[in-house]
């Protein structure tokens, strides 16, 4: 039965991917991309990668389609005509890269094979020693926040850098009109039912984000997932009540500073480990007991991750919305 589910999900993923590549209506492509993210999250759930499924559902099926819709508001809905030679070249390149990736998978061990190097060396080490060394039941969090904390720091820096890139790119565009307020910044401002439902849903969304943030040691979740969920709450508020209303709570400039604070918090925790005589991002001596020190360090860096992810997601949405408002005003 599980094999049939896997085949069905893979088949739907393939059909959706082909439909995205074939669609000339970019709005339809964005909607299909959201479906692709939802199918990917379902596939990860079947494979037992709950944390990855959580992230894919929040990002791939949630905020990414929203940002792509904001992009379409700036670029237009339909794809312009393209050169046939360029299309053929791109298709050939994609087929070549795809063939190389398929060929590379032939050298990989079968999924879940006990003979795989990861199952013989890495996995037993994490499974048998994680509880004694880290002291938390969620091994995924132990790996991401402690054993490979360097890698996670790199991911956070990449997210922060991507946010700065989007900010620099869009802010460098010439203004299309005077800044506007009111209806242009909130197309759903006049829908009373949506606003009432939003007031009911937004507080639980933010509370759930905090739960995911601080419960990642014991179940699926952590800073990446919590940051996206927290940003969704603010973005939904902006869509319902307007950017001008959100700016009274947290302005664009404040969001930029907070995004940097998250990365700084992560890096500072690593420096504290060095001050105690350990390696960078080794937080065993942040408390009298090594396990307690690990807990403190993991909570701190996960908080930094959540702050940066939430701030960057909000920042990108605010910048896109600001550009859209300026173009409408022009």
Can you offer a commentary on this structure?
The chain has about 325 residues and is mainly alpha-helical. It folds into two domains: about 1-80; about 135-330, no CATH class. The protein has helices at about 1-20, 25-45, 50-75, 85-105, 115-135, 140-145, 150-170, 190-215, 225-240, 245-250, 250-275, 290-330. Helix 6 packs across helix 7 (about 150-170), helix 8 (about 190-215) runs antiparallel to helix 9 and helix 11 (about 250-275) runs antiparallel to helix 12. Keywords: Cell membrane, Membrane, Transmembrane, Transmembrane helix. It is a multi-pass membrane protein. It holds the Pfam family MnhB.
Question: Brief overview, please?
Answer:
76% of the residues lie in helices and 0% in strands. The protein is mostly helical.
Main traits of this protein?
single chain, 330 residues, mainly alpha, 2 domains, 12 helices, 76% helix
Structural class, by secondary structure, is mainly alpha
Number of helices: 12
What's the shape?
globular
Low-pLDDT parts are 176-185
Distance between the termini: 57 Å
Beta-strand residue percentage: under 5%
**Rg of Cα set:** 22 Å
Fraction of residues in helix? over 70%
User: Main sheet?
Assistant: none
Can you count the beta strands?
0
Quaternary class:
single chain
Q: What is the mean predicted local confidence, pLDDT?
A: 82
**N to C succession of SSEs:** HHHHHHHHHHHH
How many independent structural domains?
A: 2
């Amino acid at each position: 039965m599980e094999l049939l589910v896997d085949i069905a999900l893979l088949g739907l993923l393939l059909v959706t991917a082909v439909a995205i590549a074939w669609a000339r209506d970019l709005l339809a492509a964005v909607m299909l991309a959201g479906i692709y993210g939802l199918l990917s999250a379902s596939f990860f759930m079947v494979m037992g990668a709950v944390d990855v499924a959580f992230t894919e559902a929040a990002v791939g099926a949630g905020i990414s389609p929203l940002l792509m819709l904001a992009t379409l508001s700036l670029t237009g809905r339909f794809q312009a005509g393209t050169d046939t030679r360029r299309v053929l070249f791109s298709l050939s390149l994609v087929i070549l890269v795809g063939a190389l990736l398929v060929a590379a998978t032939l050298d990989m061990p079968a999924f879940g094979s006990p003979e795989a190097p990861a199952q013989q060396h890495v996995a037993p080490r994490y499974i048998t020693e994680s509880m004694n060394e880290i002291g938390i039941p969620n091994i995924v969090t132990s790996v991401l926040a402690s054993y490979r904390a360097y890698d996670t720091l790199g991911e956070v820096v990449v997210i922060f850098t991507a946010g700065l890139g989007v900010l620099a790119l869009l802010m460098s565009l010439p203004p299309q009109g005077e800044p506007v307020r009111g209806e242009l910044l909130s197309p759903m401002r006049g829908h009373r039912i949506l606003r009432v439902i939003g007031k009911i849903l937004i507080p639980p969304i933010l509370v759930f984000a905090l739960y995911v943030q601080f419960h990642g040691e014991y179940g699926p979740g952590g800073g990446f997932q919590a940051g996206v969920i927290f940003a969704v709450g603010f973005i939904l508020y902006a869509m319902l009540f307007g950017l001008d209303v959100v700016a009274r709570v947290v302005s664009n400039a404040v969001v930029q500073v907070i995004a940097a604070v998250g990365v700084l918090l992560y890096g500072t925790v690593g420096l504290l480990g060095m001050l105690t005589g350990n390696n960078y991002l080794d937080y065993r001596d942040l408390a009298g007991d090594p396990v307690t020190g690990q807990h403190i360090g993991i909570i701190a860096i996960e908080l930094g991750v959540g702050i940066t992810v939430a701030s960057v997601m909000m920042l990108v949405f605010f910048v896109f919305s600001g550009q859209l408002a300026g173009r409408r005003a022009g």
